[in-house]
Amino acid sequence: MKNSAAKKEYKFILFISGMSIKSMTAVNNLRKICETYLNDNFELETIDINIDQQQAVKHQIIALPTLIKVQPAPPRIILGDLSDTQKVLKILNIQPAE
Fold it and tell me: Which of 25, 55, 82, 85 suits 48 as a labelling partner, its CA being 20 to 30 A distant?
């Protein structure tokens, strides 16, 4: 049984714009990456700037979709639909299991 209250090692914030193709592609690609490489050891917050514009201002988001890796340090930011898995893993410093 999974303990949902357990602290997750990775925390991400993904900024999207509604149900746009790029936004939905980014959501799907990030979920696949997280489920494949992080084994439920992640927390993902998705923020639709059409609903919560203040968060976009707070985080200085200027392009969409935008992924921010909050934890572990150092923070990282990736723009785009996250379709290049190897590039995403490298930027986020996630080591694929051997």
Answer: 85
Tally the domains of the chain: 1
Does a structural domain hold residue 36?
yes
Phi, psi of 63 (to 5 degrees): -145, 155
The sign of the CA dihedral 63, 13, 28, 23 is negative
pLDDT digits (tens, 9 = 90+) for 20-34: 999 999 999 999 999
Q: What is the pTM of this model?
A: 0.88
* Average per-residue pLDDT for the chain: 91
CATH number at residue 26: 3.40.30.10
The half-sphere exposure of 5 on its side-chain side, counting CA atoms within 13 A, is 0
